[in-house]
Every structure is written in C-alpha cells, then in structure tokens.
Amino acid sequence: MKTVFSPLHHLRSVKTELDGGILIEPHEKPSRVETILARVKSQTLGEVLEPEEFGLGPVKRVHKPDYVEFLEHCWADWVAAGKPGEAIPAVWCGRGMRARMPKDIDGRLGYYSFAAETSISDGTWEAACASANVALTAQKLVANGERAVFALCRPPGHHAHADLFGGYCFFNNAAITAQAFRDQGYQRVAILDLDFHHGNGTQAIFYDRSDVLTISLHGDPDLAFPHFLGFEDETGEGEGEGYNLNIVYPPGTPYGVWSQGLETACERIAAFQPGALVIALGVDTFEDDPISFFKLKSADYLSLGKRIEQLGFPTVFTMEGGYGVDAIGVNAVNVMQGFEG
Ligand code: Q9C
Ligand code: ZN
C-alpha cells in the first residue's frame, strides 16, 4: 500500500496544551507521525509519496471561507495584538449569548473553536494545509485506481467542523476526502471513524445529507471528549436522517466488544454500497494510550484492517489520533498490513 506523507507537518510544533490546569507538552506532537512513518519503512509497506498541492478549493467545499481566512491569519493577528504566548481560546458564546463574530482576536478564537487544548502558533496554518493535501493526494490515487492508500495526516482532522477547530484538529481531512470523491462523481461515500474519540466534526458536516454515510465508534461522550456530541440517538436530520450512526463504549472496552460495533458498522456500509470508503483511523483505542480508555492490543489492528478490506470498497485511510507510545507505529501499520493480508 502507498503512503502519502508531508515533512511540512513539522511546521506545527506548538509548545503548549492546556490540560489539568497547566500547560503541558502537547500529546499531538511531531514525533507521532515520524514513529508511524518509520514503521511504514521498516515493514516496507510500500512507496512513500509527498503530496501534491491542491490549493484551498477542495478545503472550502467543506469549511466556511471566513473560518479558513481566520486560520490563515490567526497567528499574525495574535502576535499583532501583543500577546506573549501561543494562541489559546479562553472565551466562548455560552448558552443565551450571541453567536456573532467579534473583531478582537480573543473573541474570534472563541467564535471559531469548541475547546481550549489546541494552541495555535507559527506554522499551524501551513501544516494544516499540508495535511489536507496529504489526504487529497491519497484520494486522487484511489480515484485513479489504487485499491487503498494511507494518508499519514498531521495535524489530524475529525474533530474539525465546517467552522470550528479543537481536539488538535483544524481541517477535517476525512470530510475533505469524502467531498472530493463526491465532486468527482462518486454518488455515495462512507466515512467510518475508528478513533477513540467521536468524529464530531465529520458528523456535523454531513449530518443533513444522505450521500455521505458517517459512522463513529468511540468512548461514551458522557465520559470522554468531545463531551457535547456523539451520543447514539444522533441519527441524522432531514435528508440525512438514518445516515449517521454512533456506537459508544464504556471504559475498559476490549476488542471482543469493540469489534461487535465494527461488525454493525460494516454491515451498514455494505448495505449503503458506497463508491469509496474513508477510514478516519485513530489508534488511541490502544490499551496503553495515555488519554483514552479502550483496551485494544496491537494484534487487534491486524484483524480490524482485514475486516475493512473484506468490504471491498476503494479505501482512503486518514490518520487521526494515537498518542504517547512507540506502539502507535506498529498499530497504525498493522491496520494496513491486516488490510493487505
Ligand atoms: N485529558 C484526537 O484524537 N482532550 N483528538 C482530551 C485529555 C482532547 C483528541 C483530554 C483530546 C483530543 C484527534
Ligand atoms: Zn482521538
């Protein structure tokens, strides 16, 4: 399987993540994808390609133009305002307040985000653009006949809404990929989100549409980020009613339980018969992940990859979460090797 990877991910190297009342070294750090890339190479998974440049056209098919503009200039505006540290949102439109965009950079950071752990600094914009190009290059390869391609995206994307960043995400790479397939004439596309966290951005982007089926398996939002979306009674609205599926699990969930949801998801996808499948792949479902609470083991990722292959659809894997441990390389590449059999 081919892998698409951009060294420009290094341009996002924030020093801070607000966690537990202090600023820690971010969990979403550059070494994550370097660990995965090293495993891709040591296992000779296949060719590693740099992305093509697609510009902002395909990004703006999913994200609002004013949000894209905000992200492009956020850091410069923050510096111009004389702020001493990295850009971190600290005020939001709470219940009963007005959802209008303020001029001030503190106000705009809150307007365009839903969480405070995702700091912005110099290079975040460039890395987010490169990450979208990684996904779009993988999409193009699959549209041109590859059975499956691994988009080794960083930063990740599945938490990003049409006009909100958060959860370490800025551009929703999986959604951009699915929309690119649609714009190239694919009638139906499915997105299966296997990250530990709910794919809230992906769900919200396609919630009123029946042409993109969205399914997410994740930690119960009552107990896990993003807390305010991802419950099982969210099934879509309007045209999209019946085209969103959430499957939630409690702390300690092992593969034997998690994989029952995977089976349900696969049956739904098989019934939908998409022209292409996008897997939002997080490996923060791993037993040793530092911020999550499932108990998948490294060998389980081989089984998971094999099950996805059995669906038989052209497939793009976009890299999402997975933190802390060297095993993220083994686990992510195990999915691809399980897929290849
Ligand atoms: N103390 C992705 O996996 N905060 N994002 C969790 C942990 C944010 C995860 C709190 C987690 C975001 C792409
Ligand atoms: Zn995650």
Task: Write structural notes for this entry.
Pfam families: Hist_deacetyl (PF00850). Its cofactor is Zn(2+). Keywords: Hydrolase, Metal-binding, Zinc. This protein is an alpha/beta fold. The chain contains 10 helices and 10 strands. The chain has an 8-stranded parallel β-sheet, sandwiched between helices. It has a two-stranded antiparallel ribbon with strand order 2-3. It binds N-{4-[(3-aminopropyl)amino]butyl}acetamide and zinc ion (ZN). N-{4-[(3-aminopropyl)amino]butyl}acetamide (Q9C) is lined by residues 19, 117, 156, 159, 167-169, 195, 197, 225, 282, 284, 291, 320-321.
Element layout with pairings:
Blueprint: E1 2-4, E2 17-19, E3 22-24, H1 31-42, E4 48-49, H2 57-60, H3 65-80, H4 105-111, H5 124-143, E5 148-151, H6 173-183, E6 189-193, H7 200-206, E7 212-219, E8 244-249, H8 255-272, E9 276-281, H9 300-311, E10 315-319, H10 327-340
Parallel strand pairs: 1-4, 1-5, 5-10, 6-7, 6-9, 7-8, 9-10
Antiparallel strand pairs: 2-3
Helix pairs in contact: 1-10, 3-4, 5-6, 8-9, 9-10
The structure holds N-{4-[(3-aminopropyl)amino]butyl}acetamide and zinc ion (ZN).
The site of zinc ion has 7 residues, from loops.
